[in-house]
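Most newcomers find our protein records easier to grasp once they have seen one. Read left to right, the backbone structure tokens trace the chain's path through space. Once this layout is familiar, the rest of the handout is easier to follow. The record below serves as our worked example for the rest of this section:


***
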Amino acid sequence: MDTTVTEQRRPQSLLGTAASHATELPLVTLVISACTLLLACSPEMSQQLQFNREAVAPGQLWQIFTGHLTHWGWNHLVWDLAVFAVLGALCESLHRVRYLICLAVSAILIPLGICLFSPELNTYRGLSGIDTGLFAMLSGYLLFEKWSAREWAWVAILAISQLGLGLKFAFEIASKQTLFVDCVAANFQPVPLAHAIGACVGISVAVWSVLAGGGPVCLRQDSARFHTNEQREL
């Protein structure tokens, strides 16, 4: 007798999806990381490619993007690049297009926000604003997923991480210092506004992805993969 048995498989979690694509090279993240390292080896090139409002205004618009790849020293670079490499690889493995959207929108809005709301700053360097956007996007994805799955312990952990991000902003604003990098030794002024803009972009992309894709578990895989019809002979 021939019988059709329908088997419904549970969708992979986001971290499971990322792990299943671990063998795929995160090319965008690798290219950006390599360019950042190369610029760190050339102070002259960093000077030319940093975001400088006086240079951007006459038409050097590429500095809007390249300024994020420049840094104020190796201490500044190591923290920014380490965080970017990890978060970038994870986000790129989940959905490269939405990862690129988060990168592009953050890269544009951060310098624009600095021009509009921090006119005293003529120059800007660093990946930290983009790092914050990637953290907000990834933690937002996970929060939606764990909430839908009613995994309340994970929901609490992720909610605390978001609260911690808010407290980090408050610390930076109140102390005019960064939490991880010695900005006095590196001789630069922290810009909490850049981190806040990055966080807003990351959360917005996470929410849009969930609404557009029917849920965070649909980010990388087509929903048809989650349901298989198996023909069995009994």
